[in-house]
Structures are given as C-alpha cells and as structure tokens.
Amino acid sequence: MPKIDLKNLDKSDWKTYRFDQIVKNISERVEPGETDLEIYIGLEHIDAESIHIKRFGQPSDVEGQKLKCYPGDVIFGKRRAYQRKASVVITEAICSAHAFVLRANPEVIDPKLLPFFLHSDLFMHRAVDISAGGLSPTINWGILKIQEFLLPPKEQQAELAELLWAMDEVIEKDLAVLEKLERLEKSILQEIDDLIFGKANSIGDFIDIKNGYAFSGSELSEEKTPFVVVTPGNFMIGGGFSSVKFKYFTGQSYDEKFRFSNGDMIVTMTDLSKEGDTLGFPALIPEVKGIVFLHNQRLGKIIINDDSLKPMFLYHVLRTTRYRKHILNAATKTTVRHTYPDRIKSFKFNKPNDEIQRFYIKKMEDSTILLNNSAQKISASKALQKSLINEVF
Questions:
Q1: CA 22 to CA 110: how far, in whole Å?
Q2: pTM, 2 dp
Q3: How does residue 237 score in pLDDT terms, banded at 50, 70 and 90?
C-alpha cells in the first residue's frame, strides 16, 4: 500500500465543489420489457456499506421504468440513505428507479475514488440529513446537487484511491476465505446429516424440554438492566444466539428456576424472523459478565438425561437439513409459525457411538474456530477501511 500520512493531511490546497460538479446524475430511462439487457440491479441486490454488487436479478423480475447504468457508474440508493447503499456497476444493466446513477466527473474527482467518497461519513450523513419523508425518506436531486464538499487535488486523489482499493482488495480476499470456510462447515453438517439417517432412535429417548415463563410485556424494556429475557427474536438463522434484540427485565423479582446457566442449550419454538427460518434451531446461552439470562415462554431448555448422547453432537443434529424438514413440515401454518416439544422430541435418527460423536464435535469445533477468526479479521479490516475513508474526507 502507498504510504500516506492520513492523520496529517494538508488540506490547504483542497477545493470545494458542488455535488453536481463532482458527478453527473445519469437519468437514461428503460422499460424492462423492451430492453435486450439481461441484468437488473435492485437495491435489494446491494449490500450496505459495500462498493461491490454480487447479486443480480433479471428485467423480467420487475415492471415500470428503470434506469440504465454502465460499467464504472455508482448506484446510490436515494431511498433510506441511512442504509448506506452505494456500489460500483461492472456491466451494462438496468437498475432501480429508487436510486441515483452517479458518474464521476473525471476533471474533478478520480472515478476510482468516487465510491469511497460516497461511503464517507461526511457524504452519508449529509445524504441522511437532506432526506425527506416519513416511512421511506428520499433524497431530492435538486437538493443533493447543490451540496458542497471539499476534495483533494487530482494528483493526490490517485494516491488515495490506490490506498483505499488496496485495503478493499485485502477485505475481498478475506471474504473469499470466509465463504470457503462456510462451505466447509455446511459439508460437515451434511456428513452428520448422512450419518444419522435412520429411525433407530428418537430425540425424546435422550432429552426432556422445559418451557419458560410468560414474562409480562410491562416488565420488558429496551433500557439496559442486568437481566436479559431471552426471546425467539434472539435466535439466528442456522443456529446461534444474537444480542441484537435483547429485552431487559425491569420487574421486581423472578423465579430462580427460570434463570439460565452458562452453556444451557435452548431451542426456539416460535419463529420471529422475517425469513421464517429460525424455527426449531438451537442456541447456547453465552457467558456475559454482569448479565443474567432469563427463560421466556416459547423457548425450550434442553435437558439431556442420557449420557450416551453428547450435548454438542445433539446441537449439530438440530442444525441438519433432515431435522429442519421434520420441524417445518409440521409447523403451524400461521403468520408466526410454531412448533412444540413433542414435535422436536419425535425426530427419529440413528445415534452413532461415543467415538464418532466426539470426532464430529471436534471437527465442527475446529471449523467454528476458523470461521470466527476469519470473521473477526474481516470485521477489523472493515473498521480500518472505514477509518481510512473518514480520515481522508
């Protein structure tokens, strides 16, 4: 990477430009049913805080006039700008009319620097501030175009772009490694899925499932206390535990039997995810200093009463495709889907011996360590990239 002292950038020779001097707003219109183009890019295909577009649709997926975009253009979501969607186009396509198609003015800004400028807090915060509307705040071009921004001289822009693209290349390579590790984990789960094929045992032969307590909504708050009531909303697709939607207990007292211990295995019997894919998945209660986790209703606490079934092997069984089909096939067909302890316990499988269980527990443990390390590295790299962008702008 080029060596640039970002903390001591001399901005004395930087100049201020209106946004419509920095970019051109491309408004070429296309009817999806009348184009030979094969790619449609909606805002749903753009990941937040990413300059890369990795998913696509087809013109036949949509109706109504769209915008045409060309390689090198940047699609910027003008609706809900707080989602921070601005990505570089790599092929001719049509895109959502809820976006701006922005093309760098090369006399003012290096096209390679533009996508990073658009992801700076300086630009994104301004975009949010000028958005108008309630449920779906939208940016008006007439207001955006007159916004003014300070930019470095062209010769310095090339160096900055080289630095930021080098950082981006590091992240993309690490993301490719993460994808391979995710495929590895799925292949191990598939091995377990194949291994347990059969009907020699039922899960209920080895476990009991205890339901939680119906905590009153008046006792729950988003304001932090030392007590967290675990809900179905804390489950992640694929298994695992998330702190994103913590609900905190504000009542005077609770029954100790509804207090979780570190490492308790729980399973959700109500699906609260928009995707509808958390039903029946397991999670382990984590150890968090200063936090007590409480057992809410519609969560099953798994009690293993036969040592021949290892807890972590059961955890992975509850993530297999075969088990998932068992749960979903009998789920209640309402908007919010439910399952029940008896349904979970009725899942039939062949339990392998102790040695094989330990082998797969270790194999999955090693895979999880690699995945976590990779994810942490990517998170650190993205934080550094964001810091670099904001040091520049």
A1: 10
A2: 0.80
A3: confident
Amino acid sitting at position 74: V
pLDDT of 244 reads: 67
For residues 69 and 59, what is the distance between their CA atoms, to the nearest angstrom? Answer: 13
Which of residues 134, 154, 174 is at a domain's end?
A: 154
Residue 77 phi, psi dihedral angles, 5° rounding = -70, 115
Given a contact cutoff of 8 angstroms between Cβ atoms, the answer to whether 70 and 92 are in contact is yes
CA dihedral sign, ordered 228, 230, 231, 236: positive
Bridge-based pairing state of the strands 227-230 and 292-295: parallel
- Name the DSSP class of 71: T
Q: CA 125 to CA 139: how far, in whole Å?
A: 12
By the 8 A CB rule, do 291 and 249 touch? no
Confidence (pLDDT) at 328? 87
Do 124 and 35 lie in one domain? The reply is yes
Using a 10 angstrom Cβ sphere, with 0-12 exposed, 13-18 middle and 19 or more buried, the burial of residue 243 is exposed
Q: Within this chain, do residues 208 and 336 fall inside the same structural domain, yes or no?
A: yes
Question: Rounded distance, CA 25 to CA 142, Å?
Answer: 11
Rounded Cα–Cα distance for residues 214 and 299 (Å): 10
Three-state DSSP at 282 gives strand
Give dist(CA 148, CA 249) in Å, integer.
Answer: 47
Q: Are residues 35 and 143 in the same domain?
A: yes
Q: Is residue 346 part of a domain?
A: yes
Cα–Cα dist 99/93, whole Å: 13
| Residues of the chain above pLDDT 70, percent | 96
Task: Mention every residue, 6+ apart, whose C-beta is less than 8 A from residue 79.
Answer: 43, 98, 99, 136, 137, 138, 139
pLDDT in tens, 285-331: 988 888 999 999 989 999 999 999 999 999 999 999 999 899 988 88
> DSSP readout, 365-386?
HHHHHHHHHHHHHHHHHHHHHH
Q: What is the DSSP letter of 58?
A: -
pLDDT given for residue 245 in this prediction: 76
42 and 149 share a domain? Answer: yes
